[in-house]
């Protein structure tokens, strides 16, 4: 008999928009780990550079749109290099559209860049934006104005700023707590002990159902379901499934 699976709420997905390999290997990797520990599906585009080399009309360019549409919340990590990427600005406009439609939540994070620099397109952030516009040859002022509007709209949302925290660990912890307020049903990663307890509870429920409701004519050895053999079989199955999940991770 197959053990019934208790229906669980689907894990929420979070999309992270950022620019820069240093950020990916450092701060973003810490955010991703913390989110995965909180049992959240995370999408991080690890192929920004290849996207930029392919150009804006490659057939895979809309993959990020589907990822954003499948997400419940987006983290937009503004850094001084963010605006130099056309890909990031495309992500930003898509995120803004979904937020305006009420289909996505967003949390902006200002990492080693001032909010004023982003809002006013000043400093290195502003220079990167101007260079991106010049490089892409965007003479369409209406389109550029739309991008700037999306950028400022997102930047005005409740946010986290790295300058207010003594280190990245404190910033990451604050971000996770902020996400939990928006998605309150995400929880900490289960320990092995908690998983074992859940398995044993499920086994007990199934054993009781089998013992009282399966006719003896169908399964003569009903005592099996209240014997140590039943729980040993359940735990062996748990070990196998846990090992397979570990390999997949």
Automatic annotation (TrEMBL):
Keyword list (alphabetical) reads: Membrane, NAD, Receptor, Transmembrane, Transmembrane helix
What Pfam families does the entry give? TIR
Which part of the chain is the TIR domain?
Answer: 10-183
Q: Does the keyword Metal-binding apply?
A: no
**Would the keyword NADP turn up in this protein's UniProt record?**
no
Gene3D superfamilies according to UniProt: Toll/interleukin-1 receptor homology (TIR) domain (3.40.50.10140)
Under the heading InterPro entries, the entry gives: TIR_dom (IPR000157), Toll_tir_struct_dom_sf (IPR035897)
Spans traversing the lipid bilayer: 196-216, 222-240
**Biological processes annotated in GO:** signal transduction
The identity of this protein, by name, is: Toll/interleukin-1 receptor homology (TIR) domain
Q: Which organism is it from?
A: Arabidopsis suecica (Swedish thale-cress)
